Amino acid sequence: MNEIENKRISKFLSLILRHQPETIHLKLDENGWADVEELITKSAHNRMHFTIEELDEVVETNNKKRFAFNKDKTKIRANQGHSIDIDLALIPQQPPEFLYHGTAEINIGSIMNKGIEKRSRQHVHLSADKDTATKVGMRHGKPVILTIRTGKMFEEGIQFYLSNNGVWLTDFVDAQYISK
């Protein structure tokens, strides 16, 4: 499969598994898992054709590790980034002392005023390294990397989760914990 086709399938999976499964009449369970055969069949009915082998390649090669199979590859889900209500069944964990959040320069005033909100997503996404945060910030304009005092947040009772692909998640980051 070529890179363009891989990206096309990946974008489609992000839409369906994170935001709008109803677009193809797909049912996700309470933990966000979809039946792989049903996904392939319903996608084909909506003119999005791919095989199990192509789906496997997309999951394996996605640089952000956005998707995961269950052990026997009969189910698939997005690792995080959902705007629909699902329970990823993640266990609270202690984060490192500092994590990073990449955003566009245009958002800095609002963030430094109001903090980082999850908005339509289930969680705020934080990165363990500045390179990843920079890539995230570049998607929206001139990137700015914010340092988040997650150790202090954790000490004060704020919960954090680590998704299967290494993204740190929390519900909200108050401005008092953010520095440029």
TrEMBL record:
It comes from the Bacteria. Keywords: NAD, Transferase. Its EC number is 2.7.1.-. Removes the 2'-phosphate from RNA via an intermediate in which the phosphate is ADP-ribosylated by NAD followed by a presumed transesterification to release the RNA and generate ADP-ribose 1''-2''-cyclic phosphate (APPR>P). May function as an ADP-ribosylase. Belongs to the KptA/TPT1 family. This is Probable RNA 2'-phosphotransferase.
